[in-house]
């Protein structure tokens, strides 16, 4: 884990033709599989603001602007170096670097408590600006950027509330997906891991988001994996056009046409299912019967909407993109890191056998997988989705306690460097699966859990915009990892590494990384019997 992160230049994005799914076309036609996806997810859903935007222009900047020595500045390859330079030149104070759309303020971590819950710093405005609020095709991002709506309520309320009820469904679908991708071969076989992890998580999540009607529908799975990629490509292309022409140009951009096809296909699949549920509910009520309970997001969206209109197709894409792509990136990193630490694989396996063997597959049992939880949190500390989280846009002049003023209209992110501070973490560059386990029962207990956030650990963001779905996601990921760790051995394939690629602020699990996998001949605990 001590080798430097790799930095690469992006290639031009590939667009799918009408006859070819976008995800498949990306895998076949670009060597940087998933670059657009990884940047998009980090930008949108965990409080990342990749592209600056929104301010500066000819105005005098409130903070120093850090520039690259010499020519040829490129945000995707130079951003981290500019943040390091600014941190050295202006310790403990804000500064600007050039984002792709203008100056972007970098706020030091010692000011995070002033930033994290400030009511005049908006995350939603960053999404609306970057993803062309109101334009056809981007409806899922419009839904995401509206705080307090049906989507946010379901994520924060229903998903967390019903975790204990749906664990069996999660485990069943995880078993199916892993078997589909890895099979039963007890000999070592090479696999490209990130597409498999994305497929597995998409299937498991679809079981909860859509129920059994669509969770194994291959067309929907392709749509749910591809929509976010298509949206990022379209958003990026429009950002290259003059602002006043974008609403006209979006009708002619090939990427925007692709995005609208994804939108239309998503609605065509989802709406008949929703209409069928509504008709069944009306029929049951007319007959004096209790309507069936499905315990999935289709039901929960209907319940929270309470008769109000909402976009059933795009809200499913919004929740799928919110969870699936971020979770797949994290899980890929976890699998690759554990491939370098087989002793940790075995320790966690023994913990799973001991805890689930005694307590069953329950929410409480998953919470008691403390070493697994610690290893997950350590993975996120070393390889977060973004090194500069907590994107905000100032809606008013912001006066901080130390006298610093952030002008209205300033886009900003936090410098997340405390995650590697030797003042907070012993040997901070090393992977220590027990690090947060050792914090349990100490004065750091409240920072020891995977779901907890802190100024020194912003993997889920921090403050009022911290990821609301992290409680559900934690249980979902633990179920998948329990299935994987109990049933399979894995190691890095020759030539592959656990190191992420660097794009701007993002640390991207490589789409090309390969592992060797084999089905274990002896499985100490039949987890499928627990979920039967």
Automatic annotation (TrEMBL):
What cofactor is needed? heme
Entry-linked SUPFAM superfamilies: Cytochrome P450
Superkingdom of origin = Eukaryota
- Keywords tagged on the record: Heme, Iron, Membrane, Metal-binding, Monooxygenase, Oxidoreductase, Transmembrane, Transmembrane helix
UniProt binding sites for heme: 467
Q: Name one Pfam family in it.
A: p450
**Any one GO MF annotation of this record:** monooxygenase activity
Q: Which residues cross the membrane?
A: 32-51
Q: Which family does the record assign? A: Belongs to the cytochrome P450 family.
Q: Which PANTHER family match?
A: CYTOCHROME P450 (PTHR46206), CYTOCHROME P450 MONOOXYGENASE AUSG-RELATED (PTHR46206:SF2)
Q: What is this protein called?
A: Ent-kaurene oxidase
Species for this entry? Pyricularia oryzae
């Amino acid at each position: 884990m001590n080798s430097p992160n790799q930095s690469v230049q992006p290639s031009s994005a590939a667009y799918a033709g009408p006859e070819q799914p976008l995800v498949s076309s990306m895998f076949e036609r670009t060597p940087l599989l998933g670059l657009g996806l990884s940047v998009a997810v980090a930008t949108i859903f965990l409080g990342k603001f990749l592209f600056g935007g929104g301010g500066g222009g000819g105005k005098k900047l409130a903070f120093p602007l850090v520039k690259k020595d010499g020519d040829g500045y490129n945000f995707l390859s130079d951003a981290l170096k500019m943040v390091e330079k600014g941190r050295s030149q202006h310790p403990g104070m804000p500064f600007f670097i050039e984002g792709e759309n203008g100056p972007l303020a970098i706020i030091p971590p010692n000011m995070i408590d002033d930033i994290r819950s400030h009511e005049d710093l908006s995350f939603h405005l960053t999404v609306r600006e970057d993803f062309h609020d109101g334009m056809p095709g981007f409806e899922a991002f419009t839904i995401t950027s509206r705080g307090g709506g049906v989507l946010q309520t379901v994520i924060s309320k229903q998903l967390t509330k019903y975790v204990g009820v749906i664990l069996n469904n999660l485990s069943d679908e995880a078993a199916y997906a892993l078997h589909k991708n890895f099979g039963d071969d007890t000999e070592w076989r090479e696999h490209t891991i990130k597409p498999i992890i994305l497929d597995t998580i998409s299937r498991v999540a679809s079981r909860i988001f859509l129920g059994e009607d669509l969770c194994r529908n291959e067309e929907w799975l392709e749509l749910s994996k591809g929509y976010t990629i298509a949206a990022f490509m379209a958003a990026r292309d429009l950002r290259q056009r003059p602002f006043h022409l974008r609403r006209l140009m979006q009708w002619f951009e090939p990427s925007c046409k692709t995005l609208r096809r994804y939108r239309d296909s998503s609605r065509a699949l989802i709406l008949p299912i929703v209409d069928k549920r509504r008709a069944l509910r009306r029929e049951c009520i007319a007959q004096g019967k209790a309507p069936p309970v499905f315990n999935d997001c289709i039901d929960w969206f209907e319940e929270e909407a309470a008769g109000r209109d909402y976009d059933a197709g795009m809200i499913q894409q919004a929740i799928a993109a919110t969870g699936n792509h971020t979770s797949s990136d994290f899980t890929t990193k976890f699998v690759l890191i554990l491939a370098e630490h087989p002793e940790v694989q075995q320790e966690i396996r023994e913990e799973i056998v001991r805890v689930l063997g005694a307590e069953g597959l329950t929410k409480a049992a998953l919470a008691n997988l403390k070493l697994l939880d610690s290893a997950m949190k350590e993975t996120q500390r070393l390889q977060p989705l973004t090194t500069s989280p907590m994107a905000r846009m100032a809606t008013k002049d912001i006066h901080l306690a130390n006298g610093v003023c952030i002008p209205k209209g300033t886009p900003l992110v936090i410098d997340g460097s405390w995650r590697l501070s030797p003042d907070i973490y012993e040997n901070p560059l090393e992977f220590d699966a027990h690090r947060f386990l050792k914090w349990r029962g100490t004065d750091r207990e409240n920072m020891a859990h995977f779901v907890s956030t802190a100024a020194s650990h912003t993997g889920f963001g921090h403050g009022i915009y911290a990821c609301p779905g992290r409680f559900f996601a934690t249980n979902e990921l633990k179920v998948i990892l329990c299935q994987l760790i109990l049933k399979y051995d894995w190691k890095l394939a020759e030539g592959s590494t656990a190191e992420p690629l660097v794009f701007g602020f993002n640390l991207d699990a490589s789409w090309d990384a390969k592992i060797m996998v084999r089905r274990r001949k002896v499985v100490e605990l039949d987890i499928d019997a627990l979920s039967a």
